[in-house]
Structures are given as C-alpha cells and as structure tokens.
Amino acid sequence: MTLKAKRARKKTASNWAVINGEKVPRPWLVYSVSKGSVFCAACLLFDVDCSFNGETGFNDWKHAGVRVNEHENSKNHKKCMLTQAKILLEIFNRDIKNRIDHDLVIQTETEISYWRNVLRRVVAATKTLASRGLPFRGSNEKFGSPNNGNFLMLIEFLSSFDPFLEEYIRKFGNKGSGSTSYLSKTVYEEFIQLLAQKVSAIIVQEVKSAKYYAIIVDSTSDISHVDQLSFVIRYVKKDGTPVERFLMFIENSGHKAEDLLVAVLSVLEFFYFDLADCRSQSYDNANNVSGIYSGLQARIHEINHLAEHAPCAAHSMNLVGVHAVECAPEAASFFNTVQTLYNFFTASTHHWEVLQSHTEKRIALKSLSATRWSARYEAVQVLNQHFVEIIETLIILEEDIEENAITRQEVKVSRQRKRKLHADETRDGDVQLSGRDQFRVNTFNVILDNLGSELRKRCTAYEKIQEKFSVIIEFGDLDNREIRKRAKRLREIYCSDLESSLEDEFVHSMLIAPKKRWKKIHLLIF
Hints:
Blueprint: H1 3-12, E1 15-17, E2 23-25, E3 29-32, E4 37-40, H2 41-46, H3 64-72, H4 75-93, H5 102-132, H6 149-159, H7 163-172, H8 185-210, E5 213-221, E6 227-236, E7 242-251, H9 257-270, E8 278-282, H10 287-290, H11 296-303, E9 308-309, H12 316-326, H13 329-346, H14 349-357, H15 373-385, H16 387-399, H17 405-410, H18 435-468, H19 470-473, H20 480-493, H21 502-512, H22 515-525
Parallel strand pairs: 5-8, 8-9
Antiparallel strand pairs: 1-2, 3-4, 5-6, 6-7
C-alpha cells in the first residue's frame, strides 16, 4: 500500500468526524498489516455476506469514507454489533467459576489486590509525612535501625498494628536494591511528585474555573541560604470562598524588578494563566516590588492596568515599626542592647543564676523578634520592670575578679557617644540639651515622623482600593442615586468584566435586602 493510501485510510476510515469537528474513533474497524486491508471485527465474527469480512477485506481507499459510512449504518452491521455487545456482557457477568481462565483470573486478581494493599499503606505514610513537612530519609534504609528516617520509622510503627504490613516487611524489608519492595526512597519520592502534580492540577483547574485571580509574591531563603521566590495565587471558588494556594518556588530569580517580572510571567505561562485575568497583585513594601515607578507592581500594571496593587498587610505594621527604629541610631542601639542583654544572660547558666539570685521574682528576659513587634514590647517591658536588678547584676559580674576578662569586658558600661565633628567645626556653641530633651529631639520626634510617613505610604494604596469598591464596602449606607453613581464608575473601570445592567442590579439588591442585612454582610467580608 502506498503512503498516500495509508494517509487516506487513517483520515477517512479509522475516525469519524461529527458536525462540530470532533473525531470519534471506530473501534470495530480492524486493520491488517499483512493484507493491507481493513475488516469489521463484529461482522467478521457473526456475518458472512459483507465486503468488510471477506477473504481480502476492504481496501478501496479512494471511496473509503463513503463505503465505511454505508457499512456502519447498515442493518447487518448494527445487528452484529448488538450481538457482540450481548455476548461480551454475558461473559463479564458470568460466574468466574465457569470461565476457562478461572485459575489465571484468580491469581491475577489476588496479585493485584496484594500490591494495591501495599501501595495504599505506602501512599498513606507518604501523605502523612508530606502534609506535616517532615523529612523522609535517614542515614540508612534498613528496617530495625534507629537511623532509618521518618518514613521507615512510620512503616515500622504501622506494622505493629497491621499483620499484613508486618508480614510484608518480614518478606521484603531488607532485601536491598534489585528487588521489588516499594519501600525505597525512589518510590516515595515518585509518589511525592505525583501528589504534587495532582494538587497543582486541581489548583490550576480551580483558578481557570474562577477565571479571575490575584498573585502574591515574596522572596525568602531556605535552610541552605538559597534565595527563593515563593509564588502564591488567590482566587474565589464557586461557592464564594476566597482561598490562597501556594504554587511553587523559583530559585535565584534575582532581586531587580525586571528579573522578578520575567520570573512571574514565566510562572503564569507555565500554568497557562492569562495575565489579562489578573485583578490584583500583592507584595511586601520593598521598592523593587512595590515601587510606584519601576517596581514589579508598576511593570505588571503597564501590561494589565486592571492588576491593582494591594500592599501585603500581614507584617505591614511590623515593618512600619522596624523602619521607624532604623531611622534613629539611638533607638537601633537601644534594641541592640536589649538583645545583647538577653544573649549575655542566656548564654551562660552561671550568669542566669546570678541574675535570679538578686531578685525576689524570677526574671524572664525576652528575645527580640524580626517578625512580631509585640515581642519587642514584651522584651522592653521586662527590662523596664527589673531595670535596677539587672544593673546590679551587671555591676557584680564586672567587679568579680573570678570572672574571666571577656565577661567583665562585655558588661562594662559604654561611654556616651558624641556626634562626630567635621573639619571646620568646633564644639563651641553646641546646645547642651537635657537627657529628656535630647531623647525627644533626636529620637522620639524622628521616629514619629518616620511612622507617619510609612503609614501614609501604605494607606494611599488602600484608599485607592476603598474608593474604587466603595459601592460594595459602603453599600448599606448609600441611597439609590449614590449607588448608581458609584456602580457606574466601577463598571467603567472594569468595562470588560461587568455588564451594563450593574447599576440596576445594585439598586434591585437594595430593594429586596434591608440595610441591616447588608451591614452584617459588610462586617463578615471586612
């Protein structure tokens, strides 16, 4: 048969194109390589008067499309197909004891059931450890070893209550490489990959079903100090529940805005997400991502003007406090002293005992936290309550000649820091301020100015979002005229997403739902 004939057979005979262009296969059509012809399997078994079940079969490729359609719609073919279906149904419903391959079927089903039970336990252990973020491996992979890792440890624990698993470990536990056991790192690592692919597929399916989504991107380092970009997506499910889902880590994407843009666009392309459907983007307040001119949010906003930037509120107030402290050297030095005191007393049990011996109540010094500003308040509060006792303890340790030189040096009171003079300056004429005034001018006022600046910068972005969606946020407090005005403004912004009847729908909702109910809904949302 020529190549042209083969192509014709493949296009016209093996598949049936319906009116919408979808191709439906014809499983009853069997091709013989030796004869270069096609046969109808059903007619070959139950019919003799047919061109598709003769000795040579059918090979008129020029008229294959017409002839195959005619045969498919013929009465004899349909009769043979029904007969074949009935016989197959009887075979599958027939008692297995009456089948000729009875022993083979029993053996196959027993083998399948056995390994399924094994894999069911392996998958359960894998899911348990993965869901808790626990490591799997140990220093070896031997059952009975105390260093065989969490996975084998969990399998051993389950076998204590599972006779099937106990017997399985006895047979296949420590056979080594080359034998099938499904208990090696290769198997559970493959299961982890399969589970990750399944979870990612479900997330992608939900996002595409929701259509609109928001992205949350942040940079963090892992335990090996490798910088990673975490990519989180937020969307609303069909039942109205907003969810956030982690998608992936991106390693070494760079810290420049253009590098981050390439990384974000590559992730969206990898998961086949359309950037035009992105309606929000959220980052921390670093300039490379939140900058209003050349930051990542500005670059994405140039591509999609509907991708509104919403600063991350998770640690926003914490960052405000951190930036305010960093702008005042005296404040930064103070918190460094607080942390130094904690490190000094907790690093030595002797220092800790001396501190506790000079107080009626036990002093619990607190460490500073980089992510919780409230922890700094607790640390300062302890220092304020027991300031005298702590100073007395430091003096005792400094004057104790039995203490080593390093310890005595660490507790010395540092000298008062003076402002560095320029070449043409002298200290003549310097205003001598009291300690309280100096703190107010050089520290307190500076921190307040910075706090106000940082808060205004964050509030500006939130105010833009509040103004845009004010028809929803303040819905229960608006009259019909104001509702129509704000709804129209919202529809004009999202002209490709919202229908022209939006104003009427808002007014209609106000008529059928009392204001008290809308206020309750507002409280639930915000």
